[in-house]
Specification:
Elements lengths: L1 E5 L3 H13 L4 E5 L2 H11 L3 E4 L8 H9 L9 E5 L5 H10 L3 E4 L4 H16 L10 H88 L6 H28 L2 H5 L2 H16 L2 E7 L7 H21 L4 E9 L2 E8 L15 H16 L3 E6 L5 E8 L1
Parallel strand pairs: 1-2, 1-3, 3-4, 4-5, 6-7
Antiparallel strand pairs: 7-8, 8-10, 9-10
Length: 395
Protein backbone atom coordinates (compact mmCIF):
# COMPACT_ATOMS: atom_id res chain seq x y z
CA UNK A 1 0.00 0.00 0.00
CA UNK A 2 1.33 3.42 -0.99
CA UNK A 3 0.54 6.02 1.69
CA UNK A 4 0.61 9.79 1.06
CA UNK A 5 1.14 11.95 4.19
CA UNK A 6 0.14 15.62 3.72
CA UNK A 7 1.14 18.02 6.50
CA UNK A 8 2.88 21.41 6.60
CA UNK A 9 4.81 20.43 9.75
CA UNK A 10 7.87 18.30 8.87
CA UNK A 11 8.09 16.89 12.41
CA UNK A 12 4.50 15.67 12.23
CA UNK A 13 5.14 14.11 8.81
CA UNK A 14 8.24 12.36 10.19
CA UNK A 15 6.29 11.00 13.18
CA UNK A 16 3.51 9.62 10.96
CA UNK A 17 6.06 8.06 8.63
CA UNK A 18 7.75 6.31 11.56
CA UNK A 19 4.41 5.00 12.88
CA UNK A 20 3.39 3.58 9.51
CA UNK A 21 6.83 2.08 8.86
CA UNK A 22 6.81 0.46 12.31
CA UNK A 23 3.63 -1.37 11.26
CA UNK A 24 5.01 -2.57 7.93
CA UNK A 25 3.98 0.26 5.59
CA UNK A 26 7.25 1.11 3.84
CA UNK A 27 5.98 2.82 0.68
CA UNK A 28 5.49 6.32 2.13
CA UNK A 29 5.41 9.57 0.18
CA UNK A 30 5.02 13.09 1.64
CA UNK A 31 3.63 16.51 0.67
CA UNK A 32 3.87 19.79 2.59
CA UNK A 33 0.35 21.12 1.85
CA UNK A 34 -2.83 20.39 -0.11
CA UNK A 35 -1.48 21.96 -3.29
CA UNK A 36 1.57 19.68 -3.35
CA UNK A 37 -0.59 16.80 -2.15
CA UNK A 38 -2.87 17.23 -5.15
CA UNK A 39 0.07 17.20 -7.57
CA UNK A 40 1.54 14.12 -5.90
CA UNK A 41 -1.83 12.35 -5.93
CA UNK A 42 -2.15 12.89 -9.67
CA UNK A 43 1.42 11.71 -10.28
CA UNK A 44 1.72 8.85 -7.76
CA UNK A 45 -1.87 7.56 -7.34
CA UNK A 46 -1.51 6.61 -3.62
CA UNK A 47 -3.68 3.92 -2.03
CA UNK A 48 -4.32 6.01 1.09
CA UNK A 49 -4.09 9.72 1.96
CA UNK A 50 -3.76 10.98 5.52
CA UNK A 51 -3.88 14.75 5.70
CA UNK A 52 -3.84 17.64 8.13
CA UNK A 53 -6.80 20.02 7.92
CA UNK A 54 -5.19 23.44 8.46
CA UNK A 55 -2.43 24.05 5.88
CA UNK A 56 -1.20 26.98 3.75
CA UNK A 57 -2.16 27.49 0.10
CA UNK A 58 -4.71 24.62 0.00
CA UNK A 59 -6.04 23.23 3.26
CA UNK A 60 -7.33 19.71 3.92
CA UNK A 61 -11.02 20.41 3.21
CA UNK A 62 -10.29 22.10 -0.12
CA UNK A 63 -7.81 19.34 -0.96
CA UNK A 64 -10.43 16.63 -0.34
CA UNK A 65 -13.14 18.58 -2.21
CA UNK A 66 -10.89 18.92 -5.24
CA UNK A 67 -10.05 15.18 -5.19
CA UNK A 68 -13.75 14.28 -5.14
CA UNK A 69 -14.31 16.39 -8.27
CA UNK A 70 -11.83 14.25 -10.26
CA UNK A 71 -13.18 10.86 -11.33
CA UNK A 72 -9.79 9.09 -11.27
CA UNK A 73 -9.00 10.37 -7.77
CA UNK A 74 -12.31 10.41 -5.86
CA UNK A 75 -12.10 6.77 -4.75
CA UNK A 76 -8.75 7.11 -2.96
CA UNK A 77 -9.36 6.61 0.79
CA UNK A 78 -8.84 9.88 2.69
CA UNK A 79 -8.29 10.29 6.48
CA UNK A 80 -7.99 13.58 8.37
CA UNK A 81 -5.49 13.96 11.22
CA UNK A 82 -5.98 17.42 12.73
CA UNK A 83 -5.34 19.38 15.92
CA UNK A 84 -7.28 22.51 14.91
CA UNK A 85 -10.49 21.36 13.23
CA UNK A 86 -11.63 18.97 15.93
CA UNK A 87 -15.27 19.87 16.56
CA UNK A 88 -18.44 18.04 15.63
CA UNK A 89 -19.14 20.37 12.69
CA UNK A 90 -15.65 19.77 11.37
CA UNK A 91 -16.12 16.02 11.41
CA UNK A 92 -19.58 16.35 9.84
CA UNK A 93 -18.17 18.45 6.98
CA UNK A 94 -15.33 15.98 6.49
CA UNK A 95 -17.85 13.13 6.34
CA UNK A 96 -20.09 15.01 3.85
CA UNK A 97 -17.04 15.53 1.64
CA UNK A 98 -16.38 11.80 1.67
CA UNK A 99 -13.57 11.43 4.24
CA UNK A 100 -13.12 7.86 5.48
CA UNK A 101 -11.96 8.89 8.95
CA UNK A 102 -11.21 11.81 11.23
CA UNK A 103 -8.53 11.42 13.91
CA UNK A 104 -7.86 14.30 16.30
CA UNK A 105 -4.38 15.07 17.58
CA UNK A 106 -2.34 15.01 19.70
CA UNK A 107 -2.33 11.30 20.37
CA UNK A 108 0.21 8.82 21.59
CA UNK A 109 1.48 6.62 18.71
CA UNK A 110 -0.27 3.52 20.09
CA UNK A 111 -3.61 5.31 20.43
CA UNK A 112 -3.29 6.82 16.96
CA UNK A 113 -2.59 3.41 15.44
CA UNK A 114 -5.59 1.83 17.17
CA UNK A 115 -7.88 4.37 15.49
CA UNK A 116 -5.99 4.10 12.20
CA UNK A 117 -6.23 0.29 12.31
CA UNK A 118 -10.01 0.47 12.76
CA UNK A 119 -10.27 2.69 9.68
CA UNK A 120 -8.00 0.37 7.64
CA UNK A 121 -10.10 -2.65 8.64
CA UNK A 122 -13.27 -0.94 7.37
CA UNK A 123 -11.50 -0.06 4.14
CA UNK A 124 -10.31 -3.64 3.73
CA UNK A 125 -13.85 -4.92 4.32
CA UNK A 126 -15.21 -2.58 1.66
CA UNK A 127 -17.30 -0.61 4.15
CA UNK A 128 -16.91 2.79 2.51
CA UNK A 129 -19.31 5.60 1.99
CA UNK A 130 -19.84 6.04 -1.72
CA UNK A 131 -19.55 9.69 -2.66
CA UNK A 132 -20.89 10.97 -5.97
CA UNK A 133 -21.04 14.77 -5.61
CA UNK A 134 -23.40 16.92 -7.58
CA UNK A 135 -21.21 19.83 -8.52
CA UNK A 136 -23.41 22.94 -8.19
CA UNK A 137 -25.45 21.92 -5.14
CA UNK A 138 -22.55 20.29 -3.34
CA UNK A 139 -20.23 23.19 -4.07
CA UNK A 140 -22.66 25.74 -2.64
CA UNK A 141 -23.26 23.59 0.43
CA UNK A 142 -19.55 22.92 0.85
CA UNK A 143 -18.65 26.60 0.61
CA UNK A 144 -21.38 27.56 3.09
CA UNK A 145 -20.34 24.94 5.65
CA UNK A 146 -16.67 25.59 5.07
CA UNK A 147 -17.07 29.35 5.58
CA UNK A 148 -19.05 28.78 8.78
CA UNK A 149 -16.33 26.53 10.18
CA UNK A 150 -13.42 28.74 9.12
CA UNK A 151 -15.16 31.84 10.53
CA UNK A 152 -15.79 30.06 13.83
CA UNK A 153 -12.17 28.91 13.98
CA UNK A 154 -10.88 32.40 13.26
CA UNK A 155 -13.12 33.88 15.96
CA UNK A 156 -11.91 31.22 18.37
CA UNK A 157 -8.27 31.94 17.51
CA UNK A 158 -8.83 35.68 17.91
CA UNK A 159 -10.31 35.10 21.36
CA UNK A 160 -7.40 32.86 22.30
CA UNK A 161 -4.90 35.45 21.07
CA UNK A 162 -6.68 38.23 22.97
CA UNK A 163 -6.67 36.15 26.15
CA UNK A 164 -3.00 35.26 25.64
CA UNK A 165 -2.08 38.90 25.04
CA UNK A 166 -4.05 39.98 28.11
CA UNK A 167 -2.30 37.39 30.27
CA UNK A 168 1.07 38.41 28.81
CA UNK A 169 0.35 42.09 29.51
CA UNK A 170 -0.61 41.25 33.08
CA UNK A 171 2.54 39.18 33.50
CA UNK A 172 4.71 41.94 32.02
CA UNK A 173 3.08 44.58 34.25
CA UNK A 174 3.58 42.36 37.29
CA UNK A 175 7.19 41.72 36.29
CA UNK A 176 7.85 45.46 35.85
CA UNK A 177 6.19 46.19 39.20
CA UNK A 178 8.29 43.49 40.88
CA UNK A 179 11.46 44.85 39.29
CA UNK A 180 10.62 48.35 40.51
CA UNK A 181 9.93 47.01 43.99
CA UNK A 182 13.22 45.12 43.97
CA UNK A 183 15.08 48.23 42.81
CA UNK A 184 13.42 50.29 45.52
CA UNK A 185 14.22 47.69 48.18
CA UNK A 186 17.82 47.42 46.95
CA UNK A 187 18.23 51.20 47.08
CA UNK A 188 16.63 51.40 50.52
CA UNK A 189 18.90 48.59 51.70
CA UNK A 190 21.95 50.39 50.30
CA UNK A 191 20.92 53.61 52.05
CA UNK A 192 20.28 51.72 55.28
CA UNK A 193 23.71 50.10 54.99
CA UNK A 194 25.32 53.51 54.49
CA UNK A 195 23.54 54.94 57.52
CA UNK A 196 24.50 51.92 59.62
CA UNK A 197 28.09 52.08 58.41
CA UNK A 198 28.23 55.77 59.32
CA UNK A 199 26.77 55.03 62.77
CA UNK A 200 29.29 52.23 63.41
CA UNK A 201 32.16 54.41 62.20
CA UNK A 202 31.12 57.23 64.52
CA UNK A 203 30.87 54.83 67.48
CA UNK A 204 34.27 53.35 66.67
CA UNK A 205 35.77 56.82 66.38
CA UNK A 206 34.05 58.46 69.34
CA UNK A 207 33.86 55.56 71.77
CA UNK A 208 36.53 52.98 70.99
CA UNK A 209 39.02 55.33 69.34
CA UNK A 210 38.79 58.03 71.97
CA UNK A 211 39.08 55.58 74.85
CA UNK A 212 42.10 53.98 73.28
CA UNK A 213 43.66 57.41 72.86
CA UNK A 214 42.79 58.22 76.47
CA UNK A 215 44.43 54.97 77.62
CA UNK A 216 47.53 55.91 75.61
CA UNK A 217 47.68 59.32 77.32
CA UNK A 218 47.29 57.72 80.75
CA UNK A 219 50.19 55.37 80.01
CA UNK A 220 52.30 58.34 78.92
CA UNK A 221 51.45 60.09 82.18
CA UNK A 222 52.25 56.94 84.13
CA UNK A 223 55.78 56.80 82.71
CA UNK A 224 56.49 60.22 84.28
CA UNK A 225 55.94 58.80 87.74
CA UNK A 226 58.66 56.91 89.64
CA UNK A 227 58.24 53.24 88.67
CA UNK A 228 60.48 50.21 88.42
CA UNK A 229 62.37 49.39 85.21
CA UNK A 230 60.29 46.24 84.84
CA UNK A 231 57.10 48.28 84.76
CA UNK A 232 58.56 50.64 82.22
CA UNK A 233 59.18 47.69 79.87
CA UNK A 234 55.61 46.44 80.29
CA UNK A 235 54.23 49.93 79.74
CA UNK A 236 56.23 50.27 76.55
CA UNK A 237 54.79 46.94 75.31
CA UNK A 238 51.26 48.09 76.17
CA UNK A 239 51.91 51.43 74.45
CA UNK A 240 53.00 49.59 71.28
CA UNK A 241 49.87 47.43 71.35
CA UNK A 242 47.66 50.47 71.85
CA UNK A 243 49.34 52.31 68.97
CA UNK A 244 48.70 49.31 66.70
CA UNK A 245 45.05 49.02 67.78
CA UNK A 246 44.52 52.77 67.34
CA UNK A 247 45.89 52.59 63.78
CA UNK A 248 43.68 49.57 63.05
CA UNK A 249 40.59 51.33 64.38
CA UNK A 250 41.37 54.43 62.28
CA UNK A 251 41.80 52.23 59.19
CA UNK A 252 38.58 50.38 59.97
CA UNK A 253 36.69 53.64 60.41
CA UNK A 254 38.05 54.85 57.07
CA UNK A 255 36.96 51.66 55.31
CA UNK A 256 33.51 51.56 56.89
CA UNK A 257 32.63 55.23 56.44
CA UNK A 258 35.36 57.85 56.13
CA UNK A 259 34.54 60.88 58.33
CA UNK A 260 35.87 63.23 55.66
CA UNK A 261 32.95 62.14 53.42
CA UNK A 262 30.46 63.79 55.77
CA UNK A 263 32.65 66.48 57.32
CA UNK A 264 34.40 67.97 54.27
CA UNK A 265 32.46 66.61 51.28
CA UNK A 266 32.31 64.03 48.51
CA UNK A 267 35.14 65.39 46.33
CA UNK A 268 37.58 65.56 49.23
CA UNK A 269 36.66 62.02 50.29
CA UNK A 270 37.27 60.67 46.76
CA UNK A 271 40.61 62.47 46.58
CA UNK A 272 41.59 60.95 49.93
CA UNK A 273 40.46 57.53 48.66
CA UNK A 274 42.67 57.88 45.58
CA UNK A 275 45.67 58.77 47.75
CA UNK A 276 45.07 55.74 49.96
CA UNK A 277 44.80 53.37 46.98
CA UNK A 278 47.98 54.85 45.57
CA UNK A 279 49.83 54.30 48.86
CA UNK A 280 48.44 50.82 49.44
CA UNK A 281 48.91 49.42 45.93
CA UNK A 282 51.80 51.45 44.54
CA UNK A 283 50.11 52.66 41.35
CA UNK A 284 49.75 56.20 40.07
CA UNK A 285 46.27 57.65 40.62
CA UNK A 286 45.41 61.21 39.64
CA UNK A 287 42.34 63.04 40.89
CA UNK A 288 40.73 66.05 39.24
CA UNK A 289 37.86 68.09 40.60
CA UNK A 290 36.39 70.05 37.69
CA UNK A 291 34.04 72.96 38.28
CA UNK A 292 32.33 74.01 41.46
CA UNK A 293 31.57 71.37 44.09
CA UNK A 294 27.92 70.56 44.57
CA UNK A 295 26.18 69.71 47.79
CA UNK A 296 25.27 66.03 47.64
CA UNK A 297 22.80 64.44 50.05
CA UNK A 298 24.42 62.25 52.72
CA UNK A 299 22.68 59.05 51.57
CA UNK A 300 23.79 59.69 47.99
CA UNK A 301 27.35 60.55 49.04
CA UNK A 302 27.91 57.19 50.68
CA UNK A 303 26.56 55.25 47.69
CA UNK A 304 28.65 57.16 45.15
CA UNK A 305 31.75 56.78 47.31
CA UNK A 306 31.26 52.98 47.37
CA UNK A 307 30.89 52.95 43.59
CA UNK A 308 34.17 54.80 43.07
CA UNK A 309 35.80 52.45 45.58
CA UNK A 310 34.51 49.43 43.60
CA UNK A 311 35.76 50.86 40.29
CA UNK A 312 39.21 51.58 41.74
CA UNK A 313 39.39 48.07 43.15
CA UNK A 314 38.54 46.62 39.71
CA UNK A 315 41.24 48.77 38.08
CA UNK A 316 43.88 47.69 40.58
CA UNK A 317 43.01 44.03 41.13
CA UNK A 318 41.41 42.86 37.90
CA UNK A 319 42.58 45.27 35.18
CA UNK A 320 46.16 45.32 36.63
CA UNK A 321 46.39 49.00 35.71
CA UNK A 322 49.55 51.07 36.22
CA UNK A 323 47.80 54.44 36.14
CA UNK A 324 44.25 55.49 36.92
CA UNK A 325 42.62 58.88 36.35
CA UNK A 326 39.62 59.86 38.47
CA UNK A 327 37.63 63.03 37.87
CA UNK A 328 34.49 64.56 39.39
CA UNK A 329 32.69 67.21 37.36
CA UNK A 330 29.49 69.18 37.85
CA UNK A 331 27.25 69.08 34.77
CA UNK A 332 24.12 71.25 35.13
CA UNK A 333 22.09 69.48 37.86
CA UNK A 334 24.19 66.33 37.82
CA UNK A 335 27.57 65.04 38.91
CA UNK A 336 29.74 63.17 36.41
CA UNK A 337 32.31 60.71 37.78
CA UNK A 338 34.89 59.31 35.39
CA UNK A 339 37.30 56.47 36.23
CA UNK A 340 39.77 55.64 33.46
CA UNK A 341 42.63 53.13 33.60
CA UNK A 342 45.33 51.75 31.30
CA UNK A 343 44.72 48.13 32.30
CA UNK A 344 44.02 45.00 30.26
CA UNK A 345 40.43 46.01 29.40
CA UNK A 346 37.62 43.67 28.30
CA UNK A 347 34.92 43.34 25.66
CA UNK A 348 32.17 45.56 27.07
CA UNK A 349 29.62 44.13 24.60
CA UNK A 350 30.07 40.67 26.16
CA UNK A 351 30.05 41.70 29.79
CA UNK A 352 27.64 38.89 30.76
CA UNK A 353 30.11 36.32 29.42
CA UNK A 354 33.19 37.78 31.08
CA UNK A 355 35.12 35.07 32.85
CA UNK A 356 35.56 36.95 36.15
CA UNK A 357 32.03 37.05 37.54
CA UNK A 358 33.08 39.37 40.39
CA UNK A 359 33.64 42.20 37.91
CA UNK A 360 30.25 41.56 36.29
CA UNK A 361 28.44 41.52 39.61
CA UNK A 362 30.14 44.72 40.78
CA UNK A 363 29.45 46.62 37.55
CA UNK A 364 25.85 45.45 37.27
CA UNK A 365 25.26 46.35 40.90
CA UNK A 366 26.56 49.85 40.20
CA UNK A 367 24.43 50.09 37.03
CA UNK A 368 21.26 49.09 38.89
CA UNK A 369 21.85 51.59 41.68
CA UNK A 370 22.74 54.40 39.26
CA UNK A 371 19.63 53.80 37.15
CA UNK A 372 17.43 53.69 40.26
CA UNK A 373 18.80 57.14 41.15
CA UNK A 374 17.80 58.38 37.69
CA UNK A 375 21.35 58.39 36.35
CA UNK A 376 23.33 56.47 33.76
CA UNK A 377 26.47 54.39 33.45
CA UNK A 378 28.63 54.21 30.33
CA UNK A 379 31.36 51.59 29.82
CA UNK A 380 34.00 51.98 27.13
CA UNK A 381 36.49 49.11 27.11
CA UNK A 382 38.31 46.84 24.68
CA UNK A 383 40.80 44.05 25.36
CA UNK A 384 44.27 45.59 25.65
CA UNK A 385 43.00 49.18 25.52
CA UNK A 386 42.05 49.93 29.11
CA UNK A 387 38.65 50.88 30.50
CA UNK A 388 36.74 54.13 30.92
CA UNK A 389 33.59 54.17 33.05
CA UNK A 390 31.41 57.28 33.35
CA UNK A 391 28.71 57.66 35.99
CA UNK A 392 26.22 60.52 35.70
CA UNK A 393 23.91 61.09 38.68
CA UNK A 394 21.34 63.87 39.21
CA UNK A 395 21.89 65.68 42.51
Amino acid sequence: MKVLIVDDNPDDRKLLRLIFERHGYNNIIEACDGHDGLDMTVAQKPDLIISDALMPRLDGFQFLWTLKMVADLRDIPFVFYSAVYTGLKDEELASRLGADGFITRPKEPEEFWREMSAILEKLAAGKRKQHTPRLMEEEREFLRKYCEIVTAKLEEKVRELEETLARRREAEEELIANQERLKTLAAELAHAEERESYRIAIELHDAVGQRLAQSRMMLDALTKSPISPECIGSIDNIRGILDTVIDQVRSLVFRISPPVLYIVGFEAAVESLCEKFQDDFGIRITFTNEGESRTIAEDLRGGLYRMVQELLFNAVKHARAKTVAVSVKSVENSVEIRVEDDGCGFDASRLFQYRDKRICLGLFSIKERIEYLGGSMEIDSKPGHGTCIILVVPV
